[in-house]
Amino acid sequence: MSTEATTPTRVLVTGGAGFIGANFVHHIVNRYPNVDVVVLDALTYAGNRESLATVRSRIEFVVGDIGDAGLVDDLVRRVDAVVHFAAESHNDNSLADPRPFIDTNIVGTFTLLQAVRAHGVRYHHVSTDEVYGDLPLADPLRFTESTPYNPSGPYSATKAAGDMLVRAWTRSFGVRATISNCSNNYGPYQHVEKFIPRQITNLIDGIRPRLYGAGTNVRDWIHVEDHNRAVWRVLCAGSVGRTYLIGANGELDNRTVIAALLEEFGRAPDEFDQVTDRPGHDVRYAVDSSALRRELGWTPQYLDFRDGLRSTIRWYRDNEQWWRPDKVATEAAYRRNGETRL
Ligand code: NAD
Ligand code: DAU
Question: Nearest-5° angle of CA 87, CA 249, CA 312?
C-alpha cells in the first residue's frame, strides 16, 4: 500500500445529484474553488438537478449512466480522480426489484473500474457499513476494517460485490483505489423515501411517522458533511489499497429517533404508527472509525445529534419546493409494496 498526499485538480463525481454526492459537490466547490468538478448522474428517481442549483455555474453536469462505457471512458480520461457515489441506495426498493441494483452497483462499478484502469486515474469508492451484515443489540462489538463481509439483502449484497471488484482491480491491475464504508447519513437533500426525511416531511404534513416493527433496530447516525469531509481526506491522503470505516459514534434505535422528531414538532410521544417490518431487517450497525481518526486525523464536527436533527428539520421546512414533488409518489410506492399498520 502506498500513501498519496495529493490534491486532485479535476474530479469526476458520479451520483452528484443524489443526497451525499450533491452535498459533496457543494463542499468541494465552496471549500476548494480551484478544483474542477464534473458530475455524472443518470437522474434516476433519486437524482435531482435542483440539489446542484446553487453551484450549477461552477461545475460541469453530464446526464448519463455509469454503465455507458463510451461515455464513462470519455469523462474519466479528462480527470485526475473519480469519486464514485452513484448507486441504487434504498434497501426497501432492492427488496421490491433487485435488478437496477445489479446493473448500477455491480456493472456500473465494473464500468468505472475499467475506465480508471485504462487511464491510470485515482479512484475513490463510496460504500456502506451494511456490507458487514448486522450486529446483535447491546453488544460492545462494532464493525472494523477486518470484519468479514456478510451482507443481508440485495442492496448490501450488490454494494459488497462492488467493493470486491475494487479490491480485485487494485491487486490485479494496479488501480489506485481506496474504499470507504460509512454508516447512516442524515442532512439536507436526502430523498423522502429514507427514514429521517420521510418522518420529517410526514410531520410537516400532519401525518403520523411510520416505525418499522418494534423499532428496536439501531443505526449509527452521521451528518452528511462529516461523511464528505472524510471522503475528501481519504481521497487526498489515504493509502491506496486501503479501506476506511467512517462513523461518528451515533448509535440510536429507531424508536428514539422518532421520539426526538415528535418532540421537535411538539407532538405527543405516542403519535406514530407501527407498520410492517422490513423482511430481513438488519438489527444493528455500529462503526469503529478509530483507524481513520488515528491515521488521517479526521474527526466529526456534528457531535450533537439533536442539533444536527434540528438543522435538518429546518432545511426541510425551508425547502418544501425541493421535496414536495417526490412525496406523493414515494408514499404510494410504500403502499404498493404492502406497508400496513400493525
Ligand atoms: P441517493 O440514492 O440519494 O443518490 C444516488 C444518485 O446516483 C442519484 O443522483 C442517482 O440519480 C444516481 N444514479 C443512480 N444510478 C445511476 C447510474 N446508473 N448512473 C449514474 N447515476 C446514477 O444515494 P445516497 O444516499 O446519496 O448514497 C450515495 C452513495 O453512498 C451510495 O453509493 C451509497 O451506497 C453510499 N452510502 C450511503 C449512505 C446513506 O446513509 N445514504 C451511507 C453509507 C454509504
Ligand atoms: O448504513 C448505511 C446505509 O444506511 C446506506 O448504505 C443506505 O444507502 C441507506 O439507505 C441507509 O440504509 P437503512 O436501511 O439503514 O436506511 P433507511 O433510512 O431506509 O432506514 C433506517 C432505519 O429506519 C431502518 O432500521 C429501517 C427504519 N425505517 C425506515 C423507514 C423508511 C422505519 O422504521 N420507518 C421508515 O419509514
Answer: 60
